[in-house]
Specification:
Blueprint: H1 29-32, E1 35-39, E2 42-46, E3 61-64, E4 67-70, E5 72-77, E6 83-89, E7 96-101, E8 105-106, E9 113-114, E10 119-128, E11 131-140, E12 146-155, H2 161-165, E13 174-175, E14 179-180, E15 184-190, E16 196-204, E17 209-210, E18 214-221, E19 226-235, H3 245-264, E20 269-272, H4 275-291, E21 292-295, E22 298-301, H5 313-323, H6 328-340, E23 360-361, H7 365-369, E24 376-377, H8 383-398, H9 401-422, E25 465-466, H10 467-486, H11 490-511, E26 512-513, E27 518-519, E28 522-523, E29 529-530, H12 536-543, H13 548-558, H14 591-603, H15 607-621, H16 655-658, H17 660-669, E30 671-674, E31 679-683, E32 693-701, E33 704-713, E34 716-725, E35 729-733
Helix pairs in contact: 5-6, 5-8, 5-17, 6-8, 8-9, 8-10, 9-10, 10-11, 10-12, 12-14, 14-15, 14-17, 15-17
């Protein structure tokens, strides 16, 4: 995925360079209608029935630390699959609930038939502490007693996540024979990396028959009687739990819900006049907190399910920027965790250089063996300047000078990386080029192998300097200047401010193309501009590197029919040689990309255009399952009474896509903070057409808190302070 794309070996295995290269075997998630759960380093993907079927490139199953610990899990009644009634995630993502019923069943050799829709089956499932818990409740709505054969088939292939994505392997480790007890099965695998990975399944009550592939129960139900079966699936634990699964299910469910409530309680609450938008916001927030993983340094948003449920630098940094107003603790956790994993030495195999910020971290067998380079991989050109930008924004938002002081050596190391290694040829621009044949060919957020190209369609050769990376470096120097000033380094602050302004002039000279009416996509290794209209130019508005006199033309180009498809701004315009609305980066629409572009529009005073982007993405969300914005969708033009065309292997949920509506809302209402003075500011607040009122509750600044309401009044937005605690002031400018 753009930033998320852990891609795979760019030269050795181009089929995993990015998600768009997974190949024809990839299974569309919209075709499979999957349901996802996550906790910590464990995630699970099931179909709507709650089943998992292993097949090539199908991500269903239970994964822990990049290994699939359960590849098959299928429920049958008397040998037949149940019929789906409904399937949904709770609003807080705590549980997956699947309601099923029986098809018409022949019960015995004599031909007795159980009519359909007489047995109700409810599956309630959740993840907690490296385990999956399920309660299976069967209820008889027939007028006579019924005897049913309930079977659960299961398997664990222990496939590495990159195998599931389509990367072939020449050798694999050794599978153990299943260890079968009365109500317990252990499946295990010895990897080539010397690690043993195991999956333990426990059942309550004890099955009538249990093998290494199947658990079978005989359930006798009187009319209207219900019986429960509990299943516990634990990753990498061989200890025999003394408590039965019926006990551990309720204990774990209580703890899981408490943890979700506790973490989400930090967030400000959003309530608006639009009930559908309220649903979308609630899902965004609950998805974000599901994707958060507690690290030793604090909460960290994993990028997305299924392919990116791990630490990504770029994704987390942008997600933290998008949610900084909502919950600054996310940004704090991201900064501290990335600082703890900042490169300190050279490692060409990992594209690591001193001071560089992480791109991706993996724990699977293939990463441990070096079959893919992502064990701790630094092939991201923009994570380092984004790290500095986030540090500055975090201090602006919170006034937390102690945390920033502790991070300052990491900021200095990141600034040094920009100078020593980021600018490879000393021309004042930051370029990328992989140090290893297995690394990502493109290391900007559009990291597909074909995403950076010239007007004729020929691919750019490196080292490559993309437009948005220069914008991030500009933002990084400005942020570092603010940090320096707060820490008393006045001379350093002045020097960094000068460098930012010098970069702005150089950038305009080298990148702005008068004929295109926007900034070129990139400069190639020969400093020839890639004269392509792309969404990257919007990021120049986002950080403010664009000269004010250029802003209007850039906005017009991005909002022209060839770029703005009605749902959002395409990654590249329809007029370009490599335009393909079904591609990953060459014509698709990415919510996070559009959120940053809209923030740039507002920065330069183009609120109406930002509102159009907001409306388009909101309209797209009304057609999506659970109101979730996916990682991306196809860039086909919007048509009346039709929803967007979905991208087949898009990750859902995806952290920076989930955060996009929240950031769009912040941008539109001009929400800012002065933590030192305990001020909340609203600069030229505007409401998009689909919102007449927005209420923000528990908005924290410094040691205080405030609830505010924004209401449309003809052409103006009126701001009311509903409640304040701790001396917070709300300042509005029009």
């Amino acid at each position: 995925m753009g930033t998320n794309l852990s891609g795979g070996p760019a030269e050795a295995a181009p089929d995993v360079t990015s998600a768009d290269d997974l190949g024809p075997a990839a299974v569309s998630r919209y075709e499979r209608s999957s349901r996802s759960l996550k906790h910590g380093d464990t995630f699970a993907v099931f179909d709507h029935n709650g089943d998992a079927f292993s097949s090539p490139s199908n991500p269903e199953g239970i994964f822990h630390r990049d290994t699939r610990h359960l590849s098959e899990f299928v429920l049958t009644l008397n040998g037949a699959r149940s019929l789906l009634l409904s399937s949904t995630l709770r609003d807080d993502n705590a549980t997956l609930d699947c309601d099923l019923t029986n098809p018409a069943l022949v019960l015995d050799p004599g031909g007795e038939v159980l009519k359909h829709d007489l047995i109700h089956v409810r599956r309630t499932r959740f993840l907690w502490q490296e385990a999956c818990y399920e309660r299976l409740v069967l209820r008889n709505f027939d007028e006579v007693p019924r005897r049913l054969q309930v079977e659960l088939s299961f398997a664990a292939d222990f496939a590495d996540l990159f195998e599931v994505r389509g990367t072939p392997r020449r050798r694999r480790g050794t599978h153990h024979s299943a260890l079968v007890g009365n109500a317990r099965v252990v499946l295990a695998y010895d990897g080539l990396d010397g690690q043993t990975r195991s999956t333990t399944l426990r059942f309550d009550p004890e099955p009538q028959r249990l093998t290494g592939r199947e658990a079978s129960f005989v359930v006798e139900l009187a009319p209207h009687q219900a019986q429960s079966i509990f299943i516990e699936i634990v990753c990498n634990s061989l200890e025999d739990n003394p408590h039965p699964p019926a006990f551990t299910f309720f204990l774990a469910l209580r703890d899981a819900r408490r943890a979700l409530r506790y973490s989400a309680s930090r967030a400000a609450a959003v309530v608006t006049s639009n009930a559908v938008f309220n649903e979308a916001v609630r899902r965004s927030v609950t998805d974000l907190y599901m994707l958060l993983t507690e690290t030793p340094e604090g909460p960290y948003p994993y990028a997305g399910i299924p392919w990116f449920s791990t630490v990504f630098g770029r994704d987390a940094l942008i997600t933290a920027l998008e949610t900084l107003w909502l919950d600054p603790e996310i940004a704090k956790g991201v900064l501290r965790h990335l600082a703890a994993n900042q490169a300190t030495d050279f490692d060409p195999a990992a594209d690591a250089e001193p001071g560089k910020i992480l791109h991706e971290m993996r724990y699977g067998e293939m990463a441990e063996l070096g079959e893919v380079p992502f064990r701790r991989y630094y092939g991201s050109i923009d994570s380092t300047p984004l790290f500095i930008m986030l540090a500055g924004a975090y201090l602006d938002r919170t006034g937390d000078l102690d945390t920033v002081r502790n991070l300052w050596p990491n900021v200095v190391a990141a600034l040094d990386w920009i100078d020593r290694f980021g600018d490879r040829d000393g021309d004042g621009f930051v370029e990328y080029g992989s140090r290893t044949a297995k690394g990502l060919v493109n290391q900007c957020w559009k990291d597909s192998h074909d995403s950076i190209f010239h007007a004729g369609g020929n691919l750019a050769s490196g080292p490559i300097a993309t437009a948005e990376v220069q914008a991030y470096v500009f933002g990084a120097w400005q942020a570092a200047a603010r940090l320096s000033r707060k820490l008393g380094h006045v001379e350093d602050a002045l020097r960094l401010e000068r460098r930012a302004e010098e970069l702005r002039i150089r950038f305009d000279t080298a990148f702005f193309d008068d004929e295109l009416g926007t900034y070129s996509l990139a400069l190639d290794g020969e400093k020839n501009p890639c004269r392509v209209r792309s969404s990257n130019a919007g990021h120049a508005l986002f950080t403010g590197i664009a000269l004010p006199e250029r802003a209007g033309r850039v906005v017009s180009t991005l909002m022209a029919q060839s770029s703005f498809c009605g749902w959002g701004v395409r990654t590249i315009a329809a007029s370009e040689a490599r335009y393909n609305p079904m591609s990953y980066h060459n014509g698709s629409v990415w919510p996070h990309d559009n959120a940053l572009i809209a923030a740039g529009f507002v920065r330069y005073g183009f609120q109406a255009e930002a509102a159009s982007i907001f409306e388009g993405l909101f309209a797209a969300s009304t057609y999506t399952d659970l109101r979730r914005l996916p990682e991306l969708f196809c860039g086909f033009a919007r048509q009346r009474a039709r929803g967007p065309t979905f991208y087949p292997v898009s990750c859902v949920p995806q952290a920076w896509a989930a955060a996009a509506p929240l950031y769009l809302l912040q941008s539109m209402i001009g929400l800012g903070f002065d933590a030192g003075r305990m001020h909340v500011t609203l600069n030229e607040p505007t409401l998009p057409p689909f919102l007449d009122e927005v209420v923000l509750k528990r908005l924290r600044v410094g040691s205080g808190m405030v609830d505010i309401a924004l209401r449309r009044s003809r052409s103006q937005v009126v701001v009311d302070v509903l409640e304040r605690r701790g001396g917070v002031k709300v300042l509005t400018t029009h």
